[in-house]
Amino acid sequence: MRGKEATGMEISQLSCFVTLANILNFRQTARQLGVSQSSVSREIGQLERSLGVTLFSRSSRQVSLTEEGAALLPYALDILSTAQSAELLVGHFREGAAGHLYISALTTCSSMLTRALDSFFSRHPDVIVDVAFQTAAGQTAAMHESRYDVHLLQQDMLPPGGGWDSMTTHKDSLALVVPKGHPLAQQPLDFRALEHERFILSQEPCNTDLYRKIMAICAAHGFVPSIMNRYDKLESVLLAVSAGLGVSIMPSALPSVLFANSVDVVPITDMDTSRSYIAAWRPDGHNPSVRLFLDVLRACVQPDGGVS
User: Fold this and answer.
1) How far, CA to CA in Å, does 198 sit from each of 138, 191, 237, 251?
2) What is the mean pLDDT of residues 154-177?
3) How far is residue 142's CA from residue 162's CA, in Å, rounded to a whole number?
4) Staple 65 to which of 6, 69, 131, 138, CB 3.0 to 4.6 Å?
């Protein structure tokens, strides 16, 4: 150990490193950070000595990241982002916030979540709530992390093996969504009329279960949809439908929240397409704001899975 250099990375060093990695010019980096060029050189030198590697290749004409520097960059960005989030959170508490709650949700839970948060904020106005809307794949990945306190998702997405408490929050069903005024919206759904329609769907890796259910619905009615395009998010699919680019099958809860005035929803009545949604949380969590939110959520949820 050799003094301060051996104590590891410091936030100021990482900030300097990320800025220089983006600009690749010591003079301009110093100007952006509001420090001297020698300070930038010193911070980078200390970081390199601390890690025992060279992060930048330097010549009289250019600066470039080394292989080690490129490997460090994404981790440095994550560290700085976490530090900034922590600083913001502490600032909330300093300004009087009574807690902080992190929620990860599917967009199809928007309506239910809006009502629950409205009631929650009326009771607990000093609790800060952060909401991250996810694709199905993103929600599945988020449940394997420890970033969120409560997850709002489809019941079938709950990881097996236990470790979660949950409650049913609401239900919806899959439906055909067409541009506003489309002829199919003026009559009961006949799947034979869909054979020549252009379909817009969510990409299978992003919403695997939904994609497979849509294909199963079409197969059950004896046709293969003509897929014009695939998007990673259901919101993008709905936007394309509202623009008149095609039709889609999706959870009926989504068009009730987005583009309600530019699409029509046609129910599928000849087969069961219902879906149940839940709130899930770790029972061993230590965030007291979770209990407060769950109390409000229970009061909002009706026994049949509807929202009061």
Assistant:
1) 27, 13, 12, 18
2) 89
3) 16
4) 69
